[in-house]
Amino acid sequence: MLMLASSWLYEDSWLRVFARFLLLLLGFIFWGAAVALAFGGVLMILMYKNYGYLFLESSLSLPGWLAVAAALILLPTGVLAVSVSAKGSRYKQGALMYLLLVLLCLEVSSAVLAWFYTVRLAYEMKSTMGYLVDQYNGTHSQGADSRAMDVVQRELQCCGIQNYKDWLKATDASWHLRGGKARVPESCCKEKYPHCRGDLVPLEQLFQEGCLKKLEDSLHFVVLYVFCCCTVVGILELLAGVSSCILMKYQPFHDLRFLDSSTYS
Q1: DSSP letters spanning 154-169
Q2: What is the pLDDT of residues 46-61, one digit of tens each?
């Protein structure tokens, strides 16, 4: 019987040591995870800021802001985890569990919204870019639609929606048949060809890849990055919660008393 009790005490002691070590390690990991999560959130916010006119959904940046908020909360959570692993108190452990719960809610919301938007936005981007191509009326036009398409093609180094041939099917054909020769916007020209004016010959002076695929690839990368960060950090937070619960199990409320009328009589 004594040997069995001794075995239980040894296992309990080993479990507490392991929980403290894991909580200490996770505390430091949380600081690095905060940087990675903030980076993903900022990328998503900047993408909406740069290409927001291509998206009908105005709340695209919401998953990014949620990720940034989670990253900011991760910093004090890491401090609390390290503190609890060294010398825990019920107040610190309670605060840690509360922050972990808030973080899980933020990260689940960010991951779900990011994944939901990436499914919806593929059609929206194609529709909007098709409209911009049809409304385009020349490289040097002052129209907002024309400038928007030029900006996209220069920044992404692309031409048209699927490829440069989309410009030859545009509704407004007056600008690209000037002089009797078919041409594309000058923003399709590669920078190393300063004399390019959008002529189709020679073709190597133009960007060959369409803008839709490049934009979709960029969006999918950002969304997948945020989704993976939220998933990994969420798993780490669950481990931190389990470790904190183990430590709380061996630290009962010594001063907890029930108040009754006889106490004051």
Answers
A1: HHHT--SSSSGGGGGG
A2: 888 887 777 766 677 8
- Of the candidates 67, 25, 45, 21, the one whose C-alpha atom is nearest the C-alpha of residue 231 is 67
Which DSSP helix (H) or strand (E) runs through 22? helix 2-51
Q: How far apart (Å, rounded) are the C-alpha atoms in residues 143 and 88?
A: 63
Rg (CA), the chain: 29
Give SS3 for 146: helix
Note whether 241 and 100 are within 8 A (CB). yes
Tokens of 69: 């908020």
Whether residue 126 has pLDDT greater than 70: yes
C-alpha span between 34 and 29 (Å, rounded): 9
Q: For 213-264, what is each residue's pLDDT tens digit? A: 888 888 888 888 998 999 999 999 999 988 888 877 765 544 444 445 554 4
Q: Quote the CA–CA distance of 206 and 160 in Å, as a whole number.
A: 11
Measured distance CA(135)–CA(120) in Å, rounded: 24
Length of the chain: 265
Secondary structure (3-state) at 206? strand
Helix (H, G, I), strand (E, B) or coil at 54: helix
Distances (CA, A) of 209 to 195, 214, 219: 21, 8, 16
Residue 244 burial by CB count (10 A; 0-12/13-18/19+): exposed, middle or buried? buried
pLDDT band at 195 (very low <50, low <70, confident <90, very high): confident
* Single-letter code of the amino acid located at 108: V
